Amino acid sequence: MTNKITVEVIFAQRDAQTLVTLSLVEGATAADALAQSGVFDLVPDVEQRDCPVGVWGSIVDRSYRLRNGDRVEIYRQLKIDPREARRQLALTGRTMSKATE
To answer: Which residue has the higher pLDDT, 50 or 89?
Structure first.
């Protein structure tokens, strides 16, 4: 009998979050979870290979072996470095809190 683990795969976008709960065989990797989750089918405009992956906030290699209860997080690429965004806003006399006004 094969032992199973339960993990979540999550991908957060600006307007929505995608969360998929999976049952995988013990010894499954982050890559296995990504493949089985189908998350990238739901967000086809995101290039899978460009996205870093983490477990509970720490970046891991896709060969990372998952444990029961792990949350696999898919991180989006930043469009602009946050420090550079602040510099650009400061040049116009705005701050991050006023950027959307």
So the answer is: 89
What CATH number does the domain containing 44 carry? 3.10.20.30
The pTM is what? 0.70
**What residues have CB less than 8 Å from 10, skipping those under 6 apart?**
17, 18, 19, 20, 71, 72, 73, 74
pLDDT digits (tens, 9 = 90+) for 17-32: 889 999 999 999 999 9
90 Cβ contact list (under 8 Å, min separation 6): none
Core vs surface per residue 69-100: b (16+ CB within 10 A) or e: ebbbbbeeeeeeeeeeeeeeeeeeeeeeeeee
Q: How many domains does the chain have?
A: 1
